Amino acid sequence: MKIFYGVQGTGNGHITRAREMAKAFAEAGVEVTYLFSGRDAAKYFDMEIFNGYRVMKGLTFHTQNGDVSYLKTAFDARPINFIKEVKALDLGGYDLVLSDFEPVTAWAAKLGNKKILGIGHQYAFNHRIPREGGDVIATSVMKYFAPTRRNIGLHWHHFGQPILPPIIAPHEPPPRSVANKIVVYLPFENPTDVVRLLTPFKAFDFMLYTPAAITSPSAHIRVKPLSRDGFQNDLYDCAGIISNAGFELVSEALHLGKKILIKPLHSQLEQISNAAALKQLGYGRIMHELDAKTIARWLENPHRVRVTYPNVAHILVRWMLDGMPPVDEDFIEASWSQVNVLQLND
User: Fold this and answer.
1) How far apart are CA 244 and CA 246, in angstroms?
2) Which residues 6+ apart lie within 8 Å of 335 measured at CB?
3) Residue 103: is its pLDDT beyond 60?
4) Could you give the domains of the chain?
5) Fewer Cβ neighbours under 10 Å: the N or C end of the chain?
6) Full-model pTM
């Protein structure tokens, strides 16, 4: 089987998900060509698993101080260049095209009448799941950004819909966590504002991951460059995370049993809806602005949830190799029956 796999590269969550799929494909002996779009080629890191991957400009969302700027997004879209990339993408010779919300691949497959499957969290929004913050622009973006004829949506809970659990690395939780260690990943916020916000909480050690080159004036706030291995090591034994409401990081934190505080991007349907789902499920706390009082209450609250998810990447690869039969109730139930939710208060 020969697959072409397009991955949205604007955020790291799609790439994290694709890494797990890449491992499953490699173990099954499937030949895969990877395409990433949404950021400059030089800004991708720890990409060794995607041997010989390709990069295109594609489309991306622009943010400023925690808010999506649709005006700047539209201004930088360069539709002529995007159309050229779509027309130039040759998908001939592939048995299946996959898109993790990657627009060049999705539109090239659509216009070329190729067999395509969408896999990702965004495709869960085709079903009745918690949804907030939607408007005409946001809803249109979700529908037309990377359209696929068939798709598999992913979420933290099934909500009675034909969707699957998250695709994450199946790690065992640590035997113990460092009680005062907090991982902070707020790439869409001003990092200077974040440092200022965390400075008063000197009883805690914050691992602040940011693409910005800044220096922390406080010993209890360690500013770290983006690194897959470094981030995973800190995430593994920390007590909790403070992050934007990206799907993949929250999924990993839930799987490891971490305390969660999220600050969704303004004007971003997916992140605002993720916050609503997290609140409905009781899996974490929300702050809609960078708020010291909310952080103080969250730091002192020991409640956390551990959600054990199966190896969904292996489930999906086996399903593809079996010819992608209809996703029926038995398939969905078999996947969710392996999920276990444990409430923790230590």
Assistant:
1) 6
2) 164, 165, 310, 312, 315
3) yes
4) 2-167+310-340 (3.40.50.2000), 181-308 (3.40.50.2000)
5) C
6) 0.91
